[in-house]
């Protein structure tokens, strides 16, 4: 199993500097992994750290959905999403969807610096790891309500 992780990086405007600081502090650890980021966040990280970053659209312009699609397609192993709990977000439903998809598909989710520090310091971070897949066959096979005739 490949040890290379596919990591999504997202930050609200008020948290972009914090995420950039975290990525810079962990540059060498992150350099051997595939990084994906929403628009501005990806541009700032690539420009300031020199790391290659696959850039998606800006979050409110569809980048959050693109990140969610990567999760749903099994193309991400972890999501580092520094969210700003003090600001109203016009695309808050998109943000909630990313958190939900990370839970549904059982991928690592770090929503703040402390959690991200614990994740990257884990011996599992650079190890081959296959998360347990959740079995949704019961949900998918459920009986749908009948329509009135």
TrEMBL record:
GO terms for cellular component: cytosol. It holds the Pfam family MGS. One of its GO terms (molecular function) is methylglyoxal synthase activity. SMART domains: MGS (SM00851). Substrate binds at residues 12, 16, 38-41, 58-59, 91. Belongs to the methylglyoxal synthase family. This is Methylglyoxal synthase. It comes from Thalassobaculum fulvum. The gene is mgsA.
